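Ligand-bound model needed. pyridoxal-5'-phosphate.
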Amino acid sequence: MSTRPVWAEVSLERLRGNLEVLRRSVAEHWLDGPPDNLPELLAVVKADAYGHGVTLCGPALAAAGARWLGVTSVEEGCVLRRALGVLPSHLSATRILVMSGVWHGEADAAIDHGLTAQVWERFQLELLHQAASRRGLPAGAVSVHLEIDTGMARQGVAPGRALAELLEHPVLRSGRIAVDGVMTHFSAAERLLEPETEAQILRFSSALGQLAGAGIVPRWVHAGNSATVFSRGQCGALQALAEGCGARLMLRPGLALYGYAPRTIPAQEPGGLEPVLSWKTRIVSLRELGVGQGAGYNSIFRATRPTRLALTPVGYGDGLNRMLSGLEPSSLEPSSGSAMLVRGERARVAGRISMDQTMLDVTDIRGVAIGDEVAILGEQSGPAGAARLTAWEHADLCGTIPYEVLCRIAARVPRVVVG
Ligand SMILES: *Cc1c(COP(=O)(O)O)cnc(C)c1O
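Prediction:
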């Protein structure tokens, strides 16, 4: 049981709402197409659902109709499969794509948990084939999604000779392992008019042609991320590709499900997304500082006026980035620097963030008391108004992206479902 007052609230209602926003966006782009051929959305729940808890979010997304979920390890896929087991059988059949491939010692668990592996290396096909043979499974019982490297150069097989060689592999030629899907990943999906994305789509197209030539007919063709869902141009080009080979298109949003719109260039704000996670703590101690008194490691905070400091029991051990530490107050613009919300107002972080503690300057906030709830991320209203802190703010201050802010929230912070 966790009794320390540091926790993260996960709103499944908002998660479902964001899925709906994504679905509406896709439907709007497909006004001309037959409604029964709308692109499917694979809900990405890797890295413990971007720090939100895969056992909470996975079943909620499946129950809301997500037929594919994406993870990046077999271990996580197994945890997710067990979590889906609580759903009625038609929902627990949700497909789980392991987007990182399989490694030695993982193929048995992948098959036994009904995971679909993304593959591009010969050894991955061999591991799956050996595990299928050990189980006496018939040809085609284990299917994979083939990843094409169209320019990201991270995972995948390049179109042309490398792909031709892979397709010659006996387990593919014989159909013992079936290719159920073909996918690629864009290196700059957020740049809506990026020539590189167009070039990647062309290379993807040539790979699909090569597969058709080899007699491989995938059911699924997928690419793209959150930004792609909101980008009419990229969606249209992909739709044409999928239709060209008689497959169903799938897009793979992650971040937007959790309520963060991708920062696209040119900017395009999809409305209606709401952050799913709120990170909270409480004030556990208060003290007064006289002018000139320092606080925290190396006294990098020094009071320039009579100051009231509030202590919160959250620190970098919880995943709060130490780059959010607050310097001497006059050295920062009043509106910049990191803050938490107390009584609906912004309270600046005072001094160094410690492993397990962070202090806040609450001098200007009236009526602060031990026990007050503090929002590290999320919304809060109080007597003086309401405010919101998002992972974008932390990300900008730390020179990173909201993905990292969210999935760095440590495992010791309990995730609590609200709504
Ligand atoms: C993480 C990931 C996504 C989702 O990207 P977002 O930017 O979070 O929408 C899609 N596809 C792959 C292969 C990924 O690794």
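The two ends are 21 Å apart (CA to CA).
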